[in-house]
Amino acid sequence: MKRLWFVTNPNSGSATREKCEAIEAVFAEHGLTLAGRSGFPDDPIPDAETLEGENVDTLVLFAGDGTINAALCKLASWKGAFLILPGGTMNLLAKTLHSETDPHRIIHAAHGSDRRVALPYVEAGPHRAFVGLILGPAAHWFRAREEARKHRFAKIGRAIGFAWRKTFGGGGLRITGIPDAPRGYQAVFVQPVKDGLVVQGVDARDWRAIVELGWDWLTGDWVAARAVTEARAQQIGIAGTGTVLALFDGEPVRLDADASITSGTSLPAFIATRQEEAA
């Protein structure tokens, strides 16, 4: 870890300008060269050619899970390393890779670490989710969270009402590849694991769980809501036609109903400071 490119997102949780400047001071303290910086989404995430042209060996991401996802997907084949710092609301990938939550301490530990790990992901076409994928009518709760992020409080109520109608106004989402799955889920959460997928489904018979999912999504911890059923699979699909709303690491995508949802594993490119036994 010698030449860095620093990617931040001022709209992601705690990635303020002051904190970014403090992190850059830590880079200088360790004699690390900052070859470039990007403030996403105003600045584009650099491509592999740009990073290679600047002899960058490490991309440092101080942002939320959605920004991190965009960078990891764009640079999936880049041969450099990624250092993920907790700069969002949940910081689930950072917690997986590091035992610390203080970015300064993570940088100190990473500077002396040569450990690189691969991470599993959920994949559907060109889209990947390293934290998780949400499918089904309850995915429409993301609109309420976007209004809350932008402090459009007058619109939050309308967004919640829209999500409620979508959640309870239809028959739910049918999933293939899961034995004995109910006829319709209101929400499906798919997590990547080393040997496949963990699929958690919530159906309309447990409306409290769906409200909980919506509230947790609105307040930030969108993976905390309990699920009604859980299964493991190598591949799942969506029954029906048309498109459905899918949230890849919290970011909305329209997914074709005939898309195949599988798992994959990244290159061993992630700097990990957590002890291997704990991870």
Query: How much of the sequence is in beta strands?
Result: 25-35%
- Overall mean confidence score, pLDDT: 83
By DSSP, the count of extended strands is: 17
What strand line-up does the widest sheet have? 12-11-10-8-14-15
Q: Secondary-structure element order, as H and E?
A: EHEHEHEHHEEEEHHEEEHEEEEEE
| Biggest sheet record | 6 strands, antiparallel
Radius of gyration: 19 Å
Give the class from helix and strand content and strand pairing: alpha+beta
Number of helices: 8
Low-confidence parts: none
Distance between the termini: 21 Å
> What fraction, in percent, of the residue positions are helical?
25-40%
Apparent shape: globular
Secondary structure: elements and pairs:
Elements: E1 3-8, H1 17-29, E2 33-39, H2 48-53, E3 58-63, H3 65-74, E4 81-86, H4 92-97, H5 103-111, E5 116-117, E6 120-124, E7 127-129, E8 133-135, H6 142-149, H7 153-168, E9 175-176, E10 187-193, E11 196-202, H8 207-219, E12 229-233, E13 235-238, E14 243-248, E15 251-256, E16 260-265, E17 270-271
Parallel strand pairs: 1-2, 1-3, 3-4
Antiparallel strand pairs: 5-17, 6-7, 6-16, 8-10, 8-14, 9-13, 10-11, 11-12, 13-16, 14-15
Helix pairs in contact: 1-5, 6-7, 6-8
